[in-house]
UniProtKB/TrEMBL annotation:
Keywords: Methyltransferase, RNA-binding, Transferase. Residues 1-119 are annotated as: Disordered. This is THUMP domain-containing protein. Residues 42-54 have a biased composition (Basic and acidic residues). The keyword DNA-binding does not apply.
């Protein structure tokens, strides 16, 4: 197939004039075409193995063999009698980094098929978990606590290594990550056509096929590409062309509820292709339907709790609780309820999904859930509808009615429910949510904090960078972060009975 942009748009492969033209060479689709293509690929593999054997005996490189990193000169790790095997790079080499020029099969003229079966031993993948900006450190610490290797912070996320079971566990247990993205391809790109060839060289057939629906998303940082929309189209064409060449047809595109979702990330000179194993964002736990006036996403609430240092056995108060997201996330974390235990994931719709192993992972996680909270949790809000929504959300999350004490009340009238010192973690109103008549809210709330909460830790996320001055408090910590697209700060204070003035 020609690599020119015009020919890439054709849905029917152009005929090649040769001795078989008299028999008619229209492109076939369906099982027979796949069998013909696979037979040709299998024959190519046997020929390469014979060449490699003769070369090893002679002590030379096989004739016509590639010298790119020596990958084509390596002996095959798969027996030639196995079905659906090819000369593609063995997965045991550690990931799916494709060549700059995709391999071509002699029968179909397209890419060589990757092995359909999994390697005998555990395969390790490079994984990226995005998160809200400002929570990278908290996410990295969470991933280390979950036992993952090679964890390090990245831009708006964290990188780590895991086998496929670890990928499923990260989806099940991470409270801060937004998605779990498995790297399946990476290579240098200078033009949109380079991106198309990289997508064509990546073994997508290992994960999904033409019978499944597909969505592709593209993002970039400092990329010279002029149009992300065109880059997205070229990546999608590369994926679909490969599957058409191998399986006889292209997958359908579904931007709403696809079976498979691919993320393309472009940097200054490199493209990285990720397989999204999560599907819907991980902050969608499945329990919040009533969102309130200015809701926090669940993973942001979990990140605030982690950054605040709140221990699961200490009292917790949110005096501006809204629909209760911070407190419900705290309760579920204290009870060891996995955040993903009640929701579906994209990896369940991929090929070769280990259903039994996934079921065992969830059963083991459920067996570790605690029966009772070790500390009191309380929330207050002036809006009775917000309190009703918070109670309903708690019930949907599986909490009993007495797990969290919700009350319609003013933050200036709150007091501790326990003699022990605890934590206040809250998202108070600011901007348009704060009415013109609330100018005295902050000094009056500050007096309540001074009188009632000596020895407590106060952590406030706000877009009002002048809030510490209004509260007449000296912050011990100022952590930049984003609530959606809104730049915020998480201010941390140590409350001490007595004077708060500077």
């Amino acid at each position: 197939m020609s690599d020119s942009p015009e020919r890439k748009k054709l849905s029917v492969r152009a005929r090649t004039p040769d001795a078989t033209a008299g028999r008619g060479d229209a492109r076939r689709a369906g099982p027979r075409a796949r069998r013909v293509a696979q037979a040709g690929l299998e024959e190519e593999k046997r020929a390469r193995m014979r060449d490699a054997t003769r070369a090893d005996a002679a002590g030379d490189t096989p004739a016509g063999g590639s010298t790119r990193g020596g990958r084509d000169n390596a002996p095959s790790l798969r027996p030639p009698k196995a079905e659906r095997r090819s000369s593609a790079r063995p997965a045991a080499e550690g990931g799916f980094r494709p060549r700059n020029s995709p391999p071509r099969g002699p029968a179909a003229g397209g890419p060589a098929a990757a092995p359909a079966a999994r390697p005998a031993g555990p395969e390790t993948f490079r994984v990226f978990a995005p998160c809200p900006q400002g929570l990278e450190g908290a996410l990295a610490a969470e991933l280390q606590q979950l036992g993952f290797a090679d964890v390090h912070e990245g831009r708006a996320g964290a990188h780590f290594s895991a086998d496929w079971q670890g990928v499923m566990q990260a989806n099940l247990h991470s409270r801060i990550a937004a998605r779990i993205l498995v790297e399946v391809g990476r290579g240098p790109v200078a033009t949109e056509d380079d991106l198309l060839e990289l997508a064509r060289a990546t073994p997508w057939e290992r994960w999904f096929g033409a019978e499944q629906t597909l969505r592709v998303d593209t993002s970039a940082v400092r990329s010279p590409m002029k149009s992300l929309q065109y880059c997205n189209l070229r990546a999608k064409d590369g994926i679909c062309d490969r599957l058409r060449d191998l399986e006889g047809e292209r997958p359908s595109i579904d931007t709403v509820r696809p079976d498979a979702r691919v993320h393309v990330f472009l940097s200054a000179d490199t493209a990285t292709l990720y397989l999204d194993t999560s599907g819907e964002s991980l902050f969608k736990r499945g329990w919040r339907l009533d969102k309130g006036e200015a809701p926090l996403r669940e993973n942001l609430a979990a990140g605030l709790l982690a950054l605040s240092g709140w221990p699961a056995d200490a009292p917790l108060l949110d005096p501006f609780c809204g629909s209760g997201t911070i407190l419900i996330e705290a309760a579920l974390a204290a009870l060891k309820v996995p955040p993903g235990v009640s929701r579906p994931f994209a990896f369940e719709r991929l090929r070769h999904h280990p259903e039994r192993r996934w079921r065992d992972l969830k059963d083991d996680a459920r067996s570790r859930i605690l029966d009772e909270l070790p500390m009191p949790l309380a929330g207050a809000d002036l809006d009775p509808q917000a309190i009703d929504a918070a109670r309903e959300n708690a019930r949907r999350a599986g909490l009993t009615d007495d797990a969290i004490y919700f009350e319609t009340a003013d933050a200036r009238d709150t007091c501790p429910l326990d003699e022990r010192a605890g934590w206040i973690v809250t998202n108070p109103p600011y901007g348009e949510r704060l009415g013109a008549g609330d100018a005295e809210l902050w000094p009056e709330w500050s007096r309540t904090l001074k009188r009632e909460f000596g020895g407590w830790q106060l952590h406030v996320i706000t877009n009002d960078f002048d809030l510490p001055r209004k509260l007449r408090l000296d912050p011990k910590r100022r952590i930049p972060m984003y609530n959606g697209a809104l730049e915020c700060r998480l201010f941390g204070f140590e409350l001490v009975s007595g004077g708060f003035r500077r």
